[in-house]
């Protein structure tokens, strides 16, 4: 299980709280606002669009938008078991935008660490390394498994 938080700033969604009863944030349906077309690559069946139009987004008065896409995503990982049981596997979660070049939409991570707060130990394997990387067009999360 994993939780993903996607944030962006939309200057057209900002407002002055003093003009609106000091309201500093609102919740809206994703289908009612512009949202980035971020997809998860390397899924087993097809590229998976992370934005669910039935989902919600939180908008702050400065135009900051936060949403938490929910769903189950199955990512294919190449397995190399030639050194079993001492093998190491790497699984890559690659996020990208279909239509926006990096000059318009830069994908990056707000953190360099992946939270393991909901990670459950497994006697078969261990999660031993996490990292983020980004080149603007793609943002990747890499998990090492031994």
What does this protein look like?
With about 150 residues, this protein is an all-beta fold. It has a single domain (about 5-145), classed as Acetylcholine Binding Protein, Chain: A (Distorted Sandwich), CATH 2.70.170.10. Helices cover about 0% and strands about 35% of the residues. It is built from no helices and 9 strands. It has strands spanning about 5-10, 25-30, 40, 50, 55-60, 65, 90-95, 125-135, 140-145. The strands form 2 sheets. Strands 4-3-7-9-8 form a 5-stranded antiparallel β-sheet, with no helix packed on it. The protein has a 4-stranded antiparallel β-sheet with strand order 1-6-5-2, with no helix packed on it. Strand 8 and strand 9 (about 140-145) form a beta hairpin. It is elongated, with a radius of gyration of 18 Å. Residues about 140-145 have low confidence and may be disordered.
């Amino acid at each position: 299980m994993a939780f993903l938080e996607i944030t962006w700033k939309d200057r057209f969604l900002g407002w002055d709280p003093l003009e609106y009863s000091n309201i500093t944030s609102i919740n809206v349906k994703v289908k009612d606002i512009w949202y980035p077309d971020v997809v998860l690559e390397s899924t087993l069946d097809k590229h998976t669009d992370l934005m669910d139009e039935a989902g919600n987004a939180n908008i702050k008065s400065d135009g900051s938008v936060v949403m938490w896409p929910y769903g189950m995503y199955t990512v294919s990982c190449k397995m190399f078991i030639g050194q079993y049981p001492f093998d190491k596997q790497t699984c890559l979660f690659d996020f990208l935008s279909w239509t926006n070049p990096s000059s318009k939409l830069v994908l990056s991570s707000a953190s360099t660490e992946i939270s393991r707060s909901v990670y459950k130990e497994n006697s078969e394997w261990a999660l031993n390394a996490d990292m983020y990387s980004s080149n603007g067009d793609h943002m990747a999360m890499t998990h090492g498994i031994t």
